[in-house]
UniProtKB/TrEMBL annotation:
SUPFAM superfamilies: FAD-binding/transporter-associated domain-like (SSF56176), FAD-linked oxidases, C-terminal domain (SSF55103). Residues 1-30 form the signal peptide. It comes from Anabas testudineus (Climbing perch). Its cofactor is FAD. It holds the Pfam family FAD_binding_4. Its EC number is 1.1.99.39. This is D-2-hydroxyglutarate dehydrogenase, mitochondrial. InterPro entries: FAD-bd_oxidored_4_C, FAD-bd_PCMH, FAD-bd_PCMH-like_sf, FAD-bd_PCMH_sub1, FAD-bd_PCMH_sub2, FAD-linked_Oxase-like_C, FAD-oxidored/transferase_4, Oxid_FAD_bind_N. Catalyzes the oxidation of D-2-hydroxyglutarate (D-2-HG) to alpha-ketoglutarate. Also catalyzes the oxidation of other D-2-hydroxyacids, such as D-malate (D-MAL) and D-lactate (D-LAC). Exhibits high activities towards D-2-HG and D-MAL but a very weak activity towards D-LAC. Its main location: mitochondrion. It catalyses: (R)-malate + A = oxaloacetate + AH2.
Amino acid sequence: MRCRRRFKGSLHSLIHVSLSCRLFATSAFSQKWLSPAAPPDRLPFSRVTQEDLAFFRNVLPGRTITDPDLLRSSNVDWLKSVKGSGEVLLRPQTTEEVSQILRYCNSHNLAVNPQGGNTGLVGGSVPVYDEIILSTALMNNVLAFDSISGILTCQAGCVLENLSHYLEESDYIMPLDLGAKGSCHIGGNVATNAGGLRLLRYGSLHGTVLGLEVVLADGRVLDCLATLRKDNTGYDLKQLFIGSEGTLGVITAVSILCPRKPKSVNVVFLGCETFEQLLKTFQLCKGMLGEILSAFEFLDSECMTLLNTHLKLPNPISDCPFYVVIETSGSDQTHDGEKLHNFLEEAMSSLLVTDGTVATEESKIKALWSMRERVTEALTHDGFTYKYDISLPVERIYQLVTDMRQHLGDRAKSVVGYGHVGDGNLHLNITSPAKDPALLAAIEPFVYEWTASCKGSISAEHGLGLKKRNYIYYSKPSQAVALMSDIKAMLDPKGILNPYKTLPDNPK
């Protein structure tokens, strides 16, 4: 099915916010946070001795790695922007082994960097200095699956895509889907509260995760691996660890509520002339597709250029300033097809879309999704990338891209925007031929001041990690950050778990 209609109109912005309300570069607040992404000084943790290695080798025979060549990939993040110097990689297989390791490290003041698939984008998954790397890669077993309730219980090191394949055999799917699904671990997904492509339909991990098993800094095992959808007995402790980025405990197992695999899936790729039309298409989409709408993603023409140039992906429709990926998923192809047809007719007759194509076959669905999922990959070929993961009121998300282009002028090679319209999550990416401190100084804190002025969040789904830790005050009041610091001090009084991450260097 292919729909096409032309509309003549100039590209214009939906919302104009005066720059004066966002420019605070000379304020005392900005002056205070000079170079906030730089690593702090190394804290007085112990250094690994031969005695320590002997203990680890006894607990993990053949799984205590000290070969520098084997350690190299675990010391560098996916973007190759953060590099640590960890000298020991530990690969436990059981919760008891994790418990023994943390109990020992806590008593000997050894810092630990928990690591899953190492697909993070904010420097949270690799050492800053010589922290011990604790990998969950070998903790990859499915523990149980209830085919009636759809509740999956598994170890933290299970790769997201492997879990998806496992569930498909029982006619279920995972409630989250990420571009990094072939590498990321479910424990890391939970630790960073990953959002992904279908949050619009299935919600966040704060809702779908039913229980966690976590090893605390002193080695105590917190067994909250519940499989109940309703459990209103006291504080919901698991919520503390969802999104805590390994700073409060090491997640070793997860129970998660999984939806049934839809019998009918359709993907639509549409083009819009303006972002205002894109937003109106979203409103129309919500109203007409309702319960079968599972994703509404967008990318701009600059993203399409990168896909064409670097990955040789052909544009499936004619050139447009903005592109939309809409996915529907339901139980009746006839019913869903009718609803989708009515939506497309209305979108075309209202001149909201200028061109489009629909896919119902799996191979074509994957091809259309690749236009959205592979933007990150295309950016890696364009130069050094500055990545920003922002939540904003949905009507303002692209204004940040427009204002950033104007703000940077020709100092940047590319300024592109894409993301999740359904939950107001913008991925702003800026590239330059090489790492450029002057360009970074022009981007930050401008991007965070702009976001704060709109009451947005400086991290929608990637976390704070090392890079964003000192920017937390743009999204959270000092009282909240102080309480977070108190919780960290209570659960990890020696600060051995993922130090230098998430919380600011000097909490107010």
